[in-house]
Amino acid sequence: MSFSKAICCKIASVMMGCSLITEIDEIGKSAIGELCNMILGHTATIFYRDNIIVDITPPTILTGDNIQLSIPNTVVVSIPLLFEDESQIEINVSFADGN
Fold this sequence. Notes:
Layout: E1 2-3, H1 5-16, H2 26-49, E2 75-82, E3 88-95
Antiparallel strand pairs: 1-3, 2-3
Helix pairs in contact: 1-2
C-alpha cells in the first residue's frame, strides 16, 4: 500500500482511537501494518473460495520519499482507492507464478 504521510497519520489516528497524529511512530506503523493484514487477509479468503491459493507475507513498513522496490519475475498491479476529499491510497499487488 502506498499513501501520503497525511493520509497515513489520519488512518493510524482512527485505528488507534486518538486525536490526529502528525508523525508516525512505532505504534502508528503497527496500526498501518494491521490495516494491511486486514485487507490482505480478507482478499486471501476471497481468493481461497475460488480455489486460488495465495501466500501472504507480513507487511514491511517503509517510510520516506521516492521509494522504489524491484521484485524480480513478478507482475505488479496497482489499485488506486480514491476518496471524496481527493486523497488516495494505492494498493500494489505483486504476482509471481508459484510453479
